[in-house]
């Protein structure tokens, strides 16, 4: 369960301490550490690299954690930004203060325990001077700033060669392309990361209203079919790269990975964002014309039907196909090559 606003500093302190132990053991003998994840985790990782005297690189999978005058930061639980403040630079200053208040004491206590000096600005320490942005430039264009030298490598998605299950292939072959519904790691029992109530029923009814078949991904919310009609099929963990090329549309929560995979596949999308960076991805899908951003996290049959009507048009399909051809597929290779080049430059040459 995610911590409450009051409990967040304590939970963060526990997370920082555990990361110092685990990452230090894992990184022994390594040449480089790649740090990502939530702020206290990344701060711990970079501190371990500093102690070990090895290079570390900070990576983010969405740009909303990178300070920029072009967009505001995400607010932390219990620390909303003053509504009257609209200057992004001021908001980013407040963001740095919030992060220091939440995580600074825990981080510096653990840094002191391994002989490292305190960090004055946790966020800037984690991000560094040259953070890496592991997103696609078409889907997530970074606007240059004077303060950060961001390296955008492209999304890090390796080819998935797993075959689709035979039962799923049979369902796909038995009729017109279905509409896929999945909410990934959104879980019914987790208040801050909850899949919409009755989303399986709402989605199936909305899909049927468009005369389409439905393909429901169980996910962490354990979504289930609402009846035994043969126009619906339920699926678990599956190769989305292959599957999304065979669906009429993808209805999802707007996670970075799902959004990128659907965009690469040329599948029109309906994004129903729930939290964190998901509204941003919903907006990007709408801005690119490759799908629809649902207004709000809890759809009704009527609101989802309206979104599907827009998304299932030939025009949206054509636009999704066109954008798919611009999405890079070499992000992981680019990142690995840059990392290896950086390490080789830092190592002394091997004597002949």
Pick out its properties.
352 residues; alpha/beta; Rossmann fold; 10% strand; globular; 42% helix; 2 domains; 10 strands; 12 helices; six-stranded parallel beta sheet
Protein described:
42% of the residues lie in helices and 10% in strands. The protein has 352 residues and is of the alpha/beta class. The chain has two domains: 8-157 and 330-346, Rossmann fold (3-Layer(aba) Sandwich), CATH 3.40.50; 166-324, Glycogen Phosphorylase B (Rossmann fold), CATH 3.40.50.2000. The chain has helices at 8-27, 39-52, 88-113, 122-127, 166-173, 199-209, 240-243, 256-265, 278-288, 301-311, 314-324, 331-346, and strands at residues 32-35, 55-60, 132-133, 151-152, 179-181, 214-217, 232-235, 249-252, 269-271, 291-293. Strand 5, helix 6 and strand 6 (214-217) form a beta-alpha-beta unit. The mean pLDDT is 92.
In the CATH classification, which architecture of the largest domain applies?
Answer: 3-Layer(aba) Sandwich
Tell me the structural class. alpha/beta
The domain tally reads 2
Query: How far do the termini sit from each other?
Result: 56 Å
> What profile does the largest beta sheet have?
6 strands, parallel
Query: How much β-strand is present in the residues?
Result: 5-15%
Radius of gyration: 22 Å
Order of adjacent strands in the largest pleated sheet: 7-6-5-8-9-10
Stretches where pLDDT is under 50 for at least 5 consecutive residues are none
CATH-level-4 superfamily name of the largest domain: Glycogen Phosphorylase B
The CATH class designation of the largest domain is: Alpha Beta
Q: Number of helical segments? A: 12
Q: Which series of helices and strands comes N to C?
A: HEHEHHEEHEHEEHEHEHEHHH
